[in-house]
């Protein structure tokens, strides 16, 4: 064997210590007392999980705080500020900022990522040109796929449709949407489904991003998923409007999503930052973060993700999905151990299912895309924001973080 991770605790196991044997980039054995390998790493009972999966992040507009203002902190300002800034984007500029953000994600244990990239007549395909080279250049540490989408409208923005098609022809595997910026939201959704079918692409939409439950499009998306038999290939993100739904309508939405096979991704940091600003007074503001752990029992696949990093949509962030899981648990008032463990699942196996990843998971025969956390169980890793000490991509170590050491006086 090439590598043995000795005395590991599996994130989806019993909690007992075992060894993990790795050869030719795959897990070949999971059992105690494996024989010697070319390299052995003693974990001392620390937690091993499949690598973290980021399904919703914007590499193209990350790291632009120095070019924008964030005075009001609302969605309209964020869209407007980024729209002005991206006029000056170049492929080289996007490549540099995206590389920096991608490396931050790698250093936080992310081994798979879907990035959402804007196309429109202003930016053209420049962001795509900046990001596409990263797929190959960082394949040693992360699998990166691209979702192309129209941030500023599709049907009301002539030329955008052709650019999205060009992106799909150029290698993008996912097509996205932002219907709330269009003059005809249902029409944009319909056109995106047409593109997806034409290019056999998955769908990942920004949806129902607003402070109240008025004018929600989630049912329309579910209807189209049913009609086109696209269950399991459609994801929606944000859906902050659902936080204003009464319990009976929230549960009805859950059953509709589950029946249609539509997954939901919550972006805790962005949703918390942008929502609740519609109040005339600065008290009793809504959180704006959908309690997705309450959707899981209804059969809805849900994920937690970062969305934006260091821009007017979210003027902070370190690309840590562990931080997103912990933040979500705080916002959603998660206290049960089972729900805390579910938060961990929503940055690992659930987003892996959303992205339809093959050979993912802690099982013999799967790829050795793994992380080691300074914890012994998933729920406590979330509760304590456990740091990632190692990550492996196809069995190759991609980084090492030394455990913190306390220096007591002699």
What would you note in describing this structure?
By secondary structure, the protein is an alpha/beta fold. It folds into two domains: 3-50 and 360-400, Urease, subunit C, domain 1 (Roll); 52-354, Metal-dependent hydrolases (TIM Barrel, Alpha-Beta Barrel). The protein is 31% helix and 22% strand. The protein contains twelve helices and 16 strands. It has helices spanning 75-85, 91-107, 126-137, 160-169, 185-199, 218-227, 247-260, 268-274, 321-331, 337-345, 349-354, 378-383; strands spanning 3-10, 17-23, 26-31, 39-42, 47-50, 52-57, 110-118, 143-149, 174-177, 202-207, 234-238, 262-266, 302-304, 370-373, 388-393, 396-400. Strands 1, 2, 3, 4, 5, 14, 15 and 16 form an eight-stranded mixed β-sheet that branches. Strands 6-7-8-9-10-11-12-13 form an eight-stranded parallel β-sheet. Helix 5 (185-199) packs parallel to helix 6 (218-227). The longest helix has 17 residues, at 91-107. The protein is globular, with a radius of gyration of 21 Å. The N and C termini lie far apart (42 Å).
Outline the secondary-structure elements.
Blueprint: E1 3-10, E2 17-23, E3 26-31, E4 39-42, E5 47-50, E6 52-57, H1 75-85, H2 91-107, E7 110-118, H3 126-137, E8 143-149, H4 160-169, E9 174-177, H5 185-199, E10 202-207, H6 218-227, E11 234-238, H7 247-260, E12 262-266, H8 268-274, E13 302-304, H9 321-331, H10 337-345, H11 349-354, E14 370-373, H12 378-383, E15 388-393, E16 396-400
Parallel strand pairs: 1-4, 1-5, 6-7, 7-8, 8-9, 9-10, 10-11, 11-12, 12-13
Antiparallel strand pairs: 1-2, 2-3, 5-14, 14-15, 15-16
């Amino acid at each position: 064997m090439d590598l043995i991770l000795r005395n590991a605790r599996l994130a989806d196991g019993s909690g007992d210590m075992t060894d993990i044997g790795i050869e030719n980039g795959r897990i070949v054995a999971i059992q105690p007392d494996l024989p010697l390998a070319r390299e052995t790493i003693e974990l001392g009972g620390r937690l091993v999980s499949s690598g973290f999966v980021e399904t919703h992040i914007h590499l193209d507009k990350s790291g632009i705080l120095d070019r924008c203002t964030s005075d009001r902190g609302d969605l309209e300002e964020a869209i407007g500020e980024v729209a002005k800034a991206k006029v000056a984007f170049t492929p080289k500029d996007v490549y540099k900022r995206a590389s920096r953000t991608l490396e931050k994600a790698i250093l936080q244990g992310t081994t798979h990522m879907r990035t959402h990239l804007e196309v429109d007549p202003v930016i053209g395909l420049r962001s795509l040109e900046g990001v596409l080279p990263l797929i190959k250049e960082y394949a040693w540490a992360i699998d990166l796929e691209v979702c192309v989408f129209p941030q500023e409208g599709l049907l009301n923005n002539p030329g955008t449709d052709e650019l999205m098609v060009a992106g799909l022809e150029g290698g993008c595997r996912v097509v996205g949407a932002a219907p709330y910026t269009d003059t005809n939201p249902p029409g944009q959704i319909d056109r995106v489904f047409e593109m997806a079918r034409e290019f056999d692409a998955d769908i990942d939409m920004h949806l129902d991003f607003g402070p109240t439950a008025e004018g929600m499009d989630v049912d329309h998306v579910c209807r189209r998923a049913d009609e086109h038999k696209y269950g399991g290939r459609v994801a929606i993100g944000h859906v902050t409007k659902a936080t204003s739904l009464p319990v009976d309508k929230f549960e009805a939405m859950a059953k509709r999503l589950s029946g249609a096979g539509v997954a939901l991704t919550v972006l805790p940091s962005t949703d918390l930052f942008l929502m609740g600003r519609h109040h005339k007074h600065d008290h009793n503001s809504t959180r704006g973060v959908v309690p997705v752990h309450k959707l899981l029992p209804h059969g809805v696949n849900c994920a937690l993700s970062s969305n934006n990093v260091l821009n007017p949509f979210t003027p902070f962030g370190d690309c840590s999905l562990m931080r997103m899981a912990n933040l979500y648990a705080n916002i959603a008032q998660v206290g049960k151990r089972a729900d805390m463990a579910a938060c961990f699942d929503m940055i690992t196996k659930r987003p892996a299912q959303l992205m339809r990843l093959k050979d993912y998971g802690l099982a013999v025969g799967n790829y050795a895309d793994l992380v080691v956390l300074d914890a012994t169980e998933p729920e406590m890793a979330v509760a304590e924001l456990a740091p990632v000490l190692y990550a492996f991509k196809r069995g190759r170590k991609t980084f090492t973080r030394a455990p913190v050491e306390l220096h007591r006086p002699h």
